[in-house]
Amino acid sequence: MDEVKNNLANVRHTILVLSGKGGVGKSTVATQLALGLKNAGKKVGILDIDLCGPSIPRMVGVEGHDVHQCPQGWVPVYPDPNLAIMSISFLLGNQDDAVVWRGPKKNAMIKQFLTDVVWGELDYLIIDTPPGTSDEHITVVENLQSHNPDGAVLVTTPQAVAVGDVRRELTFCRKTKLRVLGLVENMSGFVCPHCAECSNVFSQGGGESLAKECQVPYLGNIPLDPQLANCSEVGQSFIEAFPSSPSSQAIQRIVQSVLASTSTSQDTT
Amino acid sequence: MSEVPENAPEHCPGTGSEDAGKASACQGCPNQDVCSSAKPTLDPAVAEIKERMSSVKHKLLVLSGKGGVGKSTFTSHLARGMARDENTQVAVLDIDICGPSIPRIMGLNNEQVHQSGSGWSPVYVDDNLGVMSVGFLLNSPNDAVIWRGPKKNGLIKQFLRDVDWGDIDYLVVDTPPGTSDEHLSIVQYLKGAGVDGAVIITTPQEVSLMDVRKEISFCRKVQVPIIGVVENMSGFVCPNCKNESQIFPPTTGGASKMCEDLKIPFLGKLPLDPRIGKCCDEGNSFFDEVPDSPATQAYLEIIERVKSYCQKEETIMDCT
């Protein structure tokens, strides 16, 4: 445990991005949050612990890069001097290779990511997780205990099916005493580019009512914007490319809330 | 099974070998502990499961490397579509232990499993459609199943061995995203009984296809036949102006292109219809609620393809 603490000694804030449900946009939110924090002048790292389905490298446009070894450990990939990325995808020979691992191997890998990666000085380390409440989640929270993570941002989509899984993730946070920085509702409504009619493709309002019911901060909703999916596909920063989109503004607000809630937690410690 | 890892020392006996972790070459190898502790002994449950599964004609897996692409939605529709024929007995097994969605989608929220002399009884949606999920074993919707691999595997084993499925034509297994414990376990436990094949679900974007390619590698590695790939959420028709938009853009050609490249069958596209999501939330059958949607037609065509695949399997089995 102390190894983790020592290795992350110069990382000021650690935030986990969680969701019980898959495909709700954890990686997209993690990426855009990191890019937003970077735009706010912070040094940011993203650690992708989704070992079976790593998406972060593609979303920040560094797919296929290699990790280098230095005497202190593994050097993350830097798409920008203020952005450090680490993902299992950099360690795979072929992008189509499946990581067919059971729990113990995944746990060892995650521990290594926390102890052996030379993160250096970071203002924020964002940890993107796979869906669920299993090995990866237990391991990362256990190992981060000594380092005192700031908390978790939970992502959901509006449907009852997704909200049901995120409810379980909230229980996970409670049980592991992980602070919930807030809940984001992604894919909230789709504005038809042809007629400007807003359709609720995946229903509406589920995230906000869950946040209210469970008394966690609601960070807002990100409307469905095909441009956002597109930016994730080509590894572009959405808030830089489309600053006027309502989704961009929603992401900016989330970045601001995260900045606000983590700076207070820094003052109290 | 006898694989030699890339980073192994020169005279590695192979991870599946009797000497794994014990040979002199293993001294100092970083994998030594793993090799010597994890002996691949055959679980006696495999034989018991084979016995239990002898009354199940076809076993199908619904897989996807990516989460939230519609595995559970597809599973429930596949089962419901097949069960439209009263003479076909269908069962759904949900092995997504940490995020079971099947109970809600099937309209079985708050149902409990009953125990009988011959094991756990599935919960029935209809006379010919039974369901089993960890969701039926939880006390409250807030309950999180915070389990590591071995406990999840134990439950999957129980689902296969101790559930009183009865005589069934199709058992459809819904899985969590990824290529990890649950997937390895279901494949290993069903090895004796035999899996007909897997249907792989994806959405059109490359971010999803990337993970799905990994799932295809997984199927090839563990020798599960691939029935085909379904592209879900491919195109959204505005209910107001009827124009189609690509919410999840197929920047690299989508699933059909991937299937062409990897030489696997493409089963079809399912359009994004907000009514599908709504029916799933409410636990209604989309086929009954919106029989005229283009999505209904697309679903039925895909279900027909899956069925005919299984029947072809059957005739091949009969001949041999």
From TrEMBL, chain A:
PROSITE patterns: MRP
MF terms (GO), sorted A to Z: 4 iron, 4 sulfur cluster binding; ATP binding; ATP-dependent FeS chaperone activity; iron-sulfur cluster binding; metal ion binding
GO cellular component, one term: cytosol
Chain residues that bind ATP: 20-27
Gene Ontology BP, a term: iron-sulfur cluster assembly
Keyword Translocase assigned: no
Bound cofactor: record note: Binds 4 [4Fe-4S] clusters per heterotetramer. Contains two stable clusters in the N-termini of NUBP1 and two labile, bridging clusters between subunits of the NUBP1-NUBP2 heterotetramer.
Cofactor dependence: [4Fe-4S] cluster
Keyword tags: 4Fe-4S, ATP-binding, Cytoplasm, Iron, Iron-sulfur, Metal-binding, Nucleotide-binding
Binding site for [4Fe-4S] cluster: 192, 195
Compartments in which it is found: Cytoplasm, Cytoskeleton, Cilium axoneme; Cytoplasm, Cytoskeleton, Microtubule organizing center, Centrosome, Centriole
Coiled-coil features, chain-numbered ranges: none
Function: Component of the cytosolic iron-sulfur (Fe/S) protein assembly (CIA) machinery. Required for maturation of extramitochondrial Fe-S proteins. The NUBP1-NUBP2 heterotetramer forms a Fe-S scaffold complex, mediating the de novo assembly of an Fe-S cluster and its transfer to target apoproteins. Negatively regulates cilium formation and structure.
Oligomeric and partner information: Heterotetramer of 2 NUBP1 and 2 NUBP2 chains. Interacts with KIFC1. Interacts with NUBP1.
Family to which the UniProt record says this protein belongs: Belongs to the Mrp/NBP35 ATP-binding proteins family. NUBP2/CFD1 subfamily.
UniProt cross-references to HAMAP family, sorted A to Z: Mrp_NBP35, NUBP2
Protein known as: Cytosolic Fe-S cluster assembly factor NUBP2 homolog
UniProtKB/TrEMBL annotation, chain B:
Localization terms from the record: Cytoplasm; Nucleus
Biological source species: Strongylocentrotus purpuratus (Purple sea urchin)
Binding site for [4Fe-4S] cluster 2: 238, 241
UniProt keyword list: 4Fe-4S, ATP-binding, Cytoplasm, Iron, Iron-sulfur, Metal-binding, Nucleotide-binding
CDD domains tied to this protein: Mrp_NBP35
Source organism phylogeny: Eukaryota, Metazoa, Echinodermata, Eleutherozoa, Echinozoa
Any single GO BP term: iron-sulfur cluster assembly
MF (Gene Ontology): 4 iron, 4 sulfur cluster binding; ATP binding; ATP-dependent FeS chaperone activity; iron-sulfur cluster binding; metal ion binding
Domain of life: Eukaryota
Protein name in the entry: Cytosolic Fe-S cluster assembly factor NUBP1 homolog
Keyword 4Fe-4S included in the entry's annotation: yes
Record text on cofactor binding: Binds 4 [4Fe-4S] clusters per heterotetramer. Contains two stable clusters in the N-termini of NUBP1 and two labile, bridging clusters between subunits of the NUBP1-NUBP2 heterotetramer.
Cofactor: [4Fe-4S] cluster
Membership in a protein family: Belongs to the Mrp/NBP35 ATP-binding proteins family. NUBP1/NBP35 subfamily.
InterPro entries from the UniProt entry: Mrp-like_CS, Mrp/NBP35_ATP-bd, NUBP1/Nbp35, P-loop_NTPase, YlxH/NBP35
A Pfam family it matches: ParA
Entries under SUPFAM superfamilies matching the protein: P-loop containing nucleoside triphosphate hydrolases (SSF52540)
Positions bound to [4Fe-4S] cluster 1: 12, 26, 29, 35
Annotated GO CC locations: cytosol; nucleus
